[in-house]
Design brief:
Oligomer: heterodimer
Helix content of chain B: over 70%
Radius of gyration of chain A: 19 Å
Number of domains of chain B: 1
Number of strands of chain B: 3
Largest sheet of chain B: 3 strands, antiparallel
Helix content of chain A: 55-70%
Strand content of chain A: under 5%
Number of helices of chain A: 3
CATH class of chain B: Mainly Alpha
CATH architecture of chain B: Up-down Bundle
Structural class of chain A: mainly alpha
Largest sheet of chain A: 2 strands, antiparallel
Strand order of the largest sheet of chain B: 2-1-3
Shape of chain B: globular
Distance between the termini of chain B: 19 Å
Strand content of chain B: under 5%
CATH topology of chain B: Sodium/glucose cotransporter
Strand order of the largest sheet of chain A: 1-2
Radius of gyration of chain B: 25 Å
Number of strands of chain A: 2
Shape of chain A: elongated
Order of helices and strands of chain B: HHHHHHHHHHHHHHEEHEHHHHHHHHHH
Distance between the termini of chain A: 20 Å
Order of helices and strands of chain A: HHEEH
Amino acid sequence: MSAGSDQSDKAPPKGRARRFPALALSLWALIAFAIPLIVQPLNLIDFISFPLGFYMLAQGALIAFLLIAIVSAWRQDRIDARESRDD
Amino acid sequence: MREKVGTIKGTVSMTPKQDSSIAQTGWRLVTMALLLASGVGVAALLLLLLMKLWLGLAGINAGFFILGAALALSIALLAPKLEAFAPDARKLGAPPFFRGLALSIDTISAAFVFGLVGAVFAWGQDGLAFVLGLGAGYLLLQLLIAPRLPCFKATSIPAFFAERYGGLAPRIFSSAIVVVSMAALLVAQLLAAGLIGARLLGLEFQVAVFVGAVALLLCFLLRQMAVTAWVRGILFLFLLAAFLAPLITLALQRYGLPVPQIAYGKALWQIQNFEESLLEQELADPVFMKPMLTSFLTLSPLNFFGIVVGLAAGLASLPSVLSRHLLIGPVRQARWSTVWALLVAGLLLAALPACAAFTKLNLYASIAEGMKLVDLPAWIFAYGKLGLVQICGQAATDAATVARACADVPDGNGMLRLQDLTLHTDMIVLAMPEITGLSHWFTGFITSALLATALTAANGPLLTIVQTFAGDEWSEGHPAPISRWLVPRAIAALAVVATAFAATTRPGSILDVATWAFTLSAAGLFPALVFGLWWKRANAWGACAAMLFGFAICLYYLVATRFFAVSFCETWGFLSNSGPMAVETFNELKQAWMAAEPGAAKDAAWATLDGHAQTMANWWGVPNLAAALLALPVGFIAILAVSLATSAGAGDRS
């Protein structure tokens, strides 16, 4: 169940992230905002039969988001494991 | 009150033993769903064949409608009965993969399937803003919301605000925002269901919306609303299969590659060639043509960001998603279910532009070959009757209407030209198999899957509305069984009827309405939600200010620029980015309207004036789909400034 319910309100609930994900968020912003701006020049390049710019918008950005999500979830898992060892 | 919520969740606290029994229940559900699906499938095939023998083509269409509705109903039937109106504790047992599937069907839903394909078809590369926005939303959910939100005891968004900030005001403000944005999302789903009903059953659109609404209410009442993640997850696989089957067929036929997500790259280049050849043959006007591979034709770069940010923040603060996926269960489950959601949603999001590209390629190819106005394909009239295809400015209901409308057009030579043909963005998904020359069965399965998705996904917003008015706190205070039974159902019925009426007026395209719903929840909830989770100093005053100002500006902007465009232009004309030419036209049209005789002429003059005003009703050129661009900064500044100006609040847990 919600990890907070079986602990006192003072201790941070189990599994709750401590640090603000600043790096991941800036990568997120970079992908979401910078790629659309450079699509037109990228379209001149061919990539697996796609115009590269279109591909980056339609699929490349999604793949990048997925990679960031996996890495950050995996890192958080490791932090959790370390903290529960320390307890 | 907090204790009460605690005990409700406390009853399902997860010991490992219970955990495994929950998982067993879940797998049993999946097996049941699969068995039921194969049963429904066999029954459906028999039904379809019978209907075909009995009624011909119309019968087969009706059969597909029944199939979609039956799918949604059987999904509702599979859900276990619940005592409380809280999110289902049994969902906890679903592994992150199934929760991810359910999360993606709740967010993309039928509305964005219609919307995305239509947007890419109509706007080309600019339409990908919606793909990027939704994808970015899942990551935002994972990075900002999932690490902390599951640690709260609350089971709904208003309860979360009450828990985090304390006091009544945050709960009331957030409830209002939740209800408005969820109602908008419900309208979008009903628009989709209505369109499918109109196409398959041959009904009037308005009637079809109510048929959809009745089906939705039935699903809701059958099993007290909460459909488990297990079963909704399977529905997502159906939807994906229904889309991939025709796309794979097309990709194999044309490019010998069974991966449509990759194969449509070649189609893009072919579209570009056809665009050139259409211009050479003077079958297209360069003013009307929007080349597929040119960016920022429809949206300026700033507006592109506006849509991406609005959808991303909206997805990350969507009340139906947060209460059903993130306010339950341990942090780790929430973390990985968003990752899975991004992966499986990505498969669908990557395939939808292919659907638009194949359709566009076929349409351009047939126009380039020469499409005689006297010999138009059947799909034009099928959708023209629904008011979704216009030729020469008139709805293409039959060949005679088209001939009459196009007779007045200068230098027409009996051939269909690109600028004469206007396709509504909502129809592209449904018409894809017909335009690309695929079998009728593909249309049937896509529409069935979409109908089931619309009805199932609409359950989420409906449940959230009911929960807001008659949630756990309410039922604790009203022990009388009859009111506990009746009131939530009455609220659900009222909400469905009200949104169905709103849908019959066709307030906008499905894409517009779904985007408004996301934008409203982004503008109202996102700043207060994120600061509440990550900034200790944020207090109730700041949160209320952020919700009030952000939401008020967003709602005003959306409503005023769309429904009161003329008075908006008069009030805010000095902020609009429209040139002096547009202002002059506006004044001329206004004179014409005032001079017109009351009656039909006056109405027509108003329609022209209103249509023109909508193109210039904006602040600094921000269109209403990108309203988040205006509202989000206001919300963030409000919560920062007001929180710092007032004392640190009580009820702070983070």
